[in-house]
Description:
- By secondary structure, the protein is an all-alpha fold.
- It has helices at about 1-15, 15-20, 30-40, 45-75, 75-100, 105-110, 115-125, 150-170, 180-195, 200-220, 225-245, 245-255, 260-275, 300-330, 335-360, 380-404; strands at about 135, 140-145, 150.
- Helix 8 runs antiparallel to helix 9 (about 180-195).
- It is globular, with a radius of gyration of 25 Å.
Amino acid sequence: MAASRRKRLVAAGAGAPELAGPREHQMTFVAYLDSLTQRAVVRDPRGPAMALFAIVVALMSIGLLVQASHAATTHEPEAFMSELRSQGLFCCAGLALLIGAARLGPSGVRRFIPVACVLIALCLIGVFLPGTGAVINGSHRWLNLGFVRFQPSELARIVIVLWLADRCVRLGPLVRDMRKGFIPMLSMLLFFFALIASETDLGGGLLLLLCGFTTMWVGGARPSHVFLILGGVTSSALALGFATIPYMRHRIQVFFGNQSSQQISDSLAAMQSGGLYGVGLGQGTYRNLGVPYLESDLVFAQVGEELGYLGMLLVLALLVAYLWFSLRLVLSIRDRFDALASFGLLVSTALQAMLHVQVVAGLAPPKGMTLPFISHGGTSLVVSCLGVGLALGAARRNARETAT
């Protein structure tokens, strides 16, 4: 009985060609990423470099328009001109620094990395000292040197990425060794994280950790070391912040829906009010209804209000293009240090932009995070230009060596 049943099944299969043919191959996510990487490979990095430069200029132009619109309706005419002039100068300084850094590249500043680590550590300590530290909204994030005031934590991401890339290359195969390779790099990363988190800027510290661990992972560290420790440190930091810092506890509760945040509710309402085309530049009303930081930490909401869904899609499209051409640029660089440093520098800006959009859209706990090249302020703009400029410098050096 069983034998006759098997015969019928075999006969039915023989009469169904689609069952007898080879099975279709199911592409896994890793295989898809590998296929995407293969398509991104180019020989000449100058094409992706020029595209990245154009994207940065486009984002800065949008940012200058949005900042001018905000200042026009929140400042008196004299203050408006002063604000516009200040932001314009930051844009010019950022572009000048980008072009200057592009002439150096990561290899051009490599010998100064140890000195830069010491200086940025001193700056992070200086924010707590009377006379040099400036306390704003209860946080010690600003260093006041008299002639300039900036956030050292923004620059720390650039320095730590360069240091980690240098260490990964120097260690070679030892980067996979826990005691000789991973632990020393982790200690340096946690030292900078502790300084930034104690400002208090836990979000900025976690962003530094994410950039650092990503650089180590791509630099050859074992994934088990990277992801297990990243998960442990992140969860421990969030648990400690939830238990000891009231405003952080409130933000986490807002994210899980246990409490409400008027600021996030207003930012969502501002985005929705713009509709498809927006209400127009200078016509937004939410900034005059008491919504704070709409020009900086919530600037994506102002883009949605004044430029509509099309404006937000344009910004998101530029950010996606930034990611794509960053990948193409990194894969085209032959020198390992230049490639790894460029990856860390470019992904730092991309992660910051991603977190900003997620916070404004309510997809991440509330956190003061600027949108690179668009938000008001000088430190974020200049540091983002520095990071991109160094990556473009790696492409320039690679193209020059290929030509010779």
